[in-house]
Amino acid sequence: MLLQLHIRNYAIISSLNIRFADGLNIMTGETGAGKSIIMGALGLVLGNRADTAVLHHTDDKCVVEASFSPEVTDVLRQFFEQEDIDLDDPIIIRREITPNGKSRGFVNDTPVNLGQMKKLASQLVDLHQQFETLELNDAAFQLSVVDAVADNAALLDTYSGSFAEWQKATKQLQDLKAKQQAALAEKDYKQYLLDELLEAAFQEHELEQLEEEQDTLEHAEDMRQVVMAAVYRLAEDEEPMAQQLKAIVQQLAGMGSRHKGIEMLGDRLKSLQIELADIAGELQHVGEGLHMDPERLQLVEQRIDLGNKLMLKHAVSDTKGLLRVQHQLATDLDEQVAADERIGVLEKSITQLEEALRNTGFAMRERREKAIPALGEKVNDILKSVGMPNARLVIELTHRSEPVATGFDNIQFLFDANNTNRFEALSRVASGGELSRLMLAIKSVVAGSLQMPTLIFDEIDSGISGEAARQVGIILKRLAAHHQLICITHQPQIAARADAHFYIYKQDSGKSLETQVRRLTDQERVDAIAAMMGGDAKSENTLKAAREMML
């Protein structure tokens, strides 16, 4: 409930503090005293926009602060957890408008934006104003009314869980099919590219090795001549280098016993002689293996040619790049096969989820169909009592083939204000005053079924008087037994039902007229209601009528 509203420097309010009570809080006062201004200030903490025009003194900031003692619901707790704000009791919402037009909002001293403020306020306050009953035209609200009376909360929870899963699976299927469709357009080409690479069957580093072989084959004869010439000089010349080195080693061997250094050098030359003979043998082997092979060279060149074409096609520079492309193409084609399998699994899952949705959705439909006649009858009875004897509400339920978040049904409230038997959408036929009383009638029927926040009714009595006003007062009093109500009214029949009666008036501060609010005592209430009844407010008959109205 709304515990307290503090307003400073707003419009014609310098400073105001209102402590609200449980039950029915009535606010009355003369026209222009500031009742709508108080509602405007309250709207600031509910997330409405504002500018510097609201400042009472343009050199000071405007502050509006509301304290709430909430019923902690799962939705409310979730809001505070998601926004990382401490959930205190009371919850304090504060809005500040600075002289330069900057607006700041706070919840329990934590800065919040307007969106967060509105989201929280919707869990705490239901502001019902004349000409601001657009919610009644909203299909989602109309359906929530029917579901509240139909006691569909548990089924809706079950349905919502299945619907979320169905939506997720359906989105996955759509994405997968879109990817598959795009892949199908490229499948044949990718398969062609893969087949081309598989047919080429390049091995790791093959092209690099082939280029080396190509170079060797192209220069084989020149290399053979050089190598064999070296072999000749090392081992086959008239005085081969190996033979000359052998002779030197033998000569030095005879001196080794006389000089250790010569002996060591002779050993080294002997090792060199052996190494030189070994090199000569290996060179001869290499030389004998070097010969021009035109057929092999042609095969190598063709293989390199093929590799170069494929590397150019796939924008890579080596065999490793070609093998990487080949692996990716094979992976893409394998994934397409796997996607077909995943699509089959998803389609089966979606079919099962749709069956669950239909079972739950049809169960909700049965409850809705049973609840609608009684709901319409009760609302129409209340409309008669609040001065709309010819008005009738008809609730039309139509079926959908595809599921939506609330089931397989559409709900539409149709209205006939003058017993013409021509029922049309509320937005087309109901006036502001009619919508306001219709909303009151509906809320009075469903209040026990919905976890409603504090209800605020601004001039709910517009266009009524007498018995209709008395009936509105009875309805509001009935609602106030289970909810906190704050109601601005001009009707004594409604004011007489108050649990707490606040009088709004203007006071001359010496510099300007300022709005003030005072909670009336029991006797002051009698006087105020007598004044609202008209005539001589001080006469004993009027005062007596006021007391009787308050019983």
Number of strands: 15
Percent helix range: 55-70%
Output the number of helix runs.
17
Structural class: alpha/beta
Rg result: 47 Å
Q: Beta-strand percentage?
A: 15-25%
The low-pLDDT segments are 129-134
Shape: elongated
Structural summary, described in words:
This protein is of the alpha/beta class and 551 residues long. It has a domain at 178-338. The chain contains 17 helices and 15 strands. The strands form 3 sheets. The chain has a 6-stranded antiparallel beta sheet, with helices on one face. Strands 8-12-13-3-14-15 form a 6-stranded mixed beta sheet. Strands 9-10-11 form a 3-stranded antiparallel beta sheet. A hairpin with a 7-residue loop joins β10 (407-416) and β11.
Summarize the structure.
This protein is of the alpha/beta class and 551 residues long.
Detail the topology: elements first, then pairings.
Elements: E1 2-10, E2 13-19, E3 24-29, H1 35-45, E4 62-68, H2 74-82, E5 91-97, E6 103-107, E7 110-112, H3 114-124, E8 125-129, H4 139-150, H5 153-200, H6 206-218, H7 220-236, H8 241-253, H9 260-289, H10 294-314, H11 319-385, E9 392-404, E10 407-416, E11 424-425, H12 426-429, H13 432-446, E12 454-458, H14 466-480, E13 485-488, H15 492-495, E14 500-508, E15 513-519, H16 522-533, H17 540-550
Parallel strand pairs: 3-13, 3-14, 8-12, 12-13
Antiparallel strand pairs: 1-2, 1-4, 4-5, 5-6, 6-7, 9-10, 10-11, 14-15
Helix pairs in contact: 4-11, 5-11, 6-10, 7-9, 8-9, 10-11, 11-13, 13-14, 16-17
